[in-house]
Structure prediction request, 1314 residues.
Amino acid sequence: MTTTTAKSDLFAKTSKRQKWRMFNDKLAAWVVSLGGMSVIVAITLIFFYLLMVVLPLFEGAEIKKIQSYALPASSATASVAAANNEITSHYIIDEQGKIGVRFTSTGKAISFYTETGEVISEKALVDSPVSSFTTAESSSGVVAYGLENGSAVVVKVGFDIKYAESGKIVTPKFEYILGEDPVDVFARGESIKHLALQNGEESLTLVSISDTNRLRLSVFEYEESMFDDEISFEQSDYEVEGINYTPKKVLLDSTQRMLFIFDDLGSVYFYDISDKDDVQLYESKSLIETGSKITDIKFAAGSFSLLIGYENGRVAQWFPVRDESNNYSLAFVRDFDLGASAVSNIASEYFRKGFISSNEKGELGVHHLTAHSTLLAQNIEAGKLTHLAISPRANYLLAESEDGKLHFWHITNEYPEISVYSLWDKVWYEGYSEPEYTWQSSSASNEFEPKFSLVPLSFGTLKAAFYAMLVAMPLAILGAIYTAYFMSPKLRQTVKPTIEIMEALPTVILGFLAGLWFAPFLELNMPGVFSVVILLPLMILLFAYIWHKLPHSLVGWVPDGWQPVLLLPVIILFTWTAIAVSPAIEAAFFGGNLPTWLNDEMGIGYDQRNAMVVGFAMGFAIIPTIFSIAEDAIFSVPKHLTTGSLALGATPWQTLTKVVILTASPGIFSAVMIGFGRAVGETMIVLMATGNTPVLDFSFFEGMRTFSANIAVEMPESEVGSTHYRVLFLAALILFLFTFLFNTMAEVVRQHLRSKYSSL
Amino acid sequence: MKNWIKSGAPWIWLSGATVSISLIMVVGLIGLIAVRGLSMYWPGDIHQMDVKNAQGNTEIIAGEIFDSEQVSKERLNDAGIVIETDQHIITRYLVKTGNRDVAGPDFRWVIENNIVAETFPEDIVVFERLEWGNLYGVIESIKEKAEYVVAPGATSAALWLAFNERLARATQLQEEITAIEKTEIGSINYDMERLRLKQRKLELANAFDAAARQNLENEKALLDSQYKSHQNNLANLYREIKRDSVQVKIANGTVVEVPVGHVVRAFKPNAMSIPQKMFFYVKSIWLFMTDDPREANTEGGIYPAIFGTVMMVLIMSVIVTPFGIMAAVYLREYAKQGVVTRTIRIAVNNLAGVPSIVYGVFGLGFFVYFLGGNIDQLFYPESLPAPTFGTPGIMWASLTLALLTVPVVIVATEEGLSRVPISIRQGSLALGATKWETLWKTVLPMASPAMMTGLILAVARAAGEVAPLMLVGVVKLAPSLPLDGDFPYLHLDRKFMHLGFHIFDVGFQSPNVEAARPLVYSTAFLLVCVIIVLNLAAIAIRNRLREKYKGLDH
Prediction:
């Protein structure tokens, strides 16, 4: 009885323990699988996350209709308004897109809620009949009315934000920056038919053309009084002769020095008004082909580029270009095709180089100048649009249609500056005299045109990698051949760990030595370094020949395969001598200063931190990578191939070149590829040893900027989620794909090689 | 000769030469760093030279010889310096004259030809100061509260003795001041901040009632009173430390007043014997590794950088070891071998070759902004808009580096697992063990040296990688360490300093590059030592493994 209970006890205990063991096993399998899979998922996550951040760059724009309502009209009766022919001159939207201000041709500013069209208030800005209207650069908020009595009123529009119980209350405010009274322009009472103005830090310039074709420049210079914060201004007027054509529109650029007058025959007259007493005509040219007509002309953001809309549905960009003798002329830059119907209106964004266009058919287009892209072309079903206005943040649009309705739309257009063209092609940026590849991601001004060409960076990356491979390949491959084939095993045991240590050295240290020690050393001792590079192989061969010629009794005690040790003193001695003699060589041949000599005699610029320094430093960094893989490949060539070749009468050298290397060549090839991949991705050495200048120059005396250094330098300072941020992610993605591709190819080649060896 | 060429011997010699060149480069590099790094701490003699300057007058320059250079006469002419001599090659010395606040630039080039006379006065003292770098001069007198305690004209021995007494006192006071400022007041500030966050949290939850307010007020009052008493102590200590000052006559004859409280160390290199210098040398190296940095990282020690690196590597190891081993075990033991596992292995291998900056970018975008931002929203809404985890910090840096080095650990562990002979596995299973027990009790212990090799290689790589860290958490100067005495003791959201980044920052983003250069070499030497030691350990373990398993293979 007791034995059975003991047995059943034991059995019960064992089965409990068994259950626990089984559970443990299953749990372990589950946990390990989960952990393992999550690591692998995390690794692949990198690619997908980078892609996710980059993809929005290539999305187009989207618009969504919010509301359509009747035009916010003034409180005057409809008939009075109609009698006065009250039409819209301009719209301004506030920063948040909640309030709009409509400027009418009768001098009224009507503020309304953009979402509903409900009128908030109305202000009469002038009290005599109006003959013209203009705005300054849109971000300044300055507008001006030209009156029939020859005077002008200049108003600055702003928005006051007050915080109340119900939330934010935004009210428009109008400031007469030249005083409440209109400023006199034409004293004899001629009405101002065309007006242009720009407002700057130091002065405001008003350009007026009367109905008798008189052109007058009125400059108001600001003076800040020393005693209080009052700003007063001084008006000076200048009359310009020679307007013997019929002006249709006049525009003034943001520097207040370039004047554009467009006549009714499609020509532009481009004046230099930097000296108001002596206005010069730069040039006049026709902007149209025969038969076409100009329908709208506007400035782009920054008031530098002219956007000209045509009857055939084209919008062309022109801007002033300077030649070598500092003469300006207008150049055609690029154009956009909107379809076949005439362009009815163009509106530029406030801060980005983009614009919105509409045509007679009612199609709306969203475009960007630098990227030369049309991000949206959609018919908003409202008929012909007579006025367009964009909010400052380019996220809302007001469109007035011919039938007296106002339409309010929301725009999503986050990253218009990027297109395949702007990233990889030569782009003609504002202020440049021809299209170029430039990387310049930010500047101090608000209306800056970001230049995101990836070409200088790719060029810099490839240049750095090329010079590094130039240094590393001969040293690594020849070294690998020697170590795997000729070296004595004892020496090999010391050399291999040393090369592994070389691989483990942090690149920060290589970089700082290159930048702080080697670059000045090279500049000071250039003749010495060059003579080492050129003459050292000859010295080695000379020593080898002498060694060969020496009698066997003298040299026979040195076993085979110890050549590197024999060469150590030779190399050290020669290098030391060359560097010591370098100043003498420099004094004798190059006038004591080789970099200056290069600059003066050969016209080659010399940068202390240049491609040579990077080549040596990065070469040092990738030698061990190439060395270990190549050496492994050569060492693993089956011995029977070597012995068979030798048995058939070949010399060791012939065996090496014709049998071993050929067999191991895929391994050497994959080593080179992996080394190249590593050179492309190296960051710290490039950061410290080059000048980090994004230039496109093949010279190895100049610096460069690579993708990785660019990311390291610019990423901490870029705005999260902006175009710049995403372009840097794009650079990281390119690096990732490039190295991944190279490494995979190399790995596939190596696997193939391994299977080949096992079959031999 | 032709036969010799035909036999291929020239190529053999040339390829042997490439090996020599590589060896020379490695050894030369490490030697250069060692020599320049270690020589910084040897107290060099102070030269006092009478130098002919451009106007023809003689001026006295005193300082250490920092560097010497051989330049051609033409280069000097191009730089605007004209020497009357027949020599083509001219030697010039870079002299560290210090005295930056009273005598202009602290480094000067002196041309050998212009040196008229040179002496090594024993009385010259080197003062290492809290600000403005070194001061070189002779002690004239010592004042206490503007009255002479040791008047001018006393013997230099008496002056030196009195000065050292007062310096010891000032150093003691300085330590007390630092203890109060950093530790005590630092804790109070930290606690006050926590009170503020507590209040904000209650406000957000609409639970900030009168009782809670009263509690918080009480705690604040307590902290305030503690703060006041510390402030009183500090005021006393500052008054005490300002008491003494020493008057020093510098090379150009002016007498400078130096408050003893500003002096960190003072020594007379020309009067020290070799054993004294050796002792000083060892002490300097010790201070280098344990002191905080001064003068925008160009002087002082690198202790926070060492601490930050060690802390980050520790956290990284804690993350990478389990995950790397789990992934390797999964790949080799649990997953079905086939195309999928082969592609995964290729992918893991390739990831070791992806540039480290890409990991940094991923860490910044995904970990810091996405994960960190969400953590802030969920757990730290009271601190917003100031981010807690939504900004680079030590946790994200360790996580990024763990991701960077996980392929290394996976590959090493896989190799270790593959070396365990199948007979052992089969024997264990035959004896009735489950798969997990086989793994845990036989296979993994046998593979543990390989795992350790992998971990050591990962640590060595993490200690040297700088590029990703620049984006995810390293700073030039961290105000506090990630580990301190305030709850929760380990602050994973703090930024930290790193040895590799310190090298970059001190070498390239420093206001005074000449003074900083020896510090860069020393830090580099420390880093190289650490990495070489780790790698040699990994190599040794690996070689021992290979020997051990040679017999068991196949």
Summary: Chain A touches chain B through 113 residues (CB under 8 Å). Chain A has a mean pLDDT of 87. The longest helix of chain A spans residues 2-54.
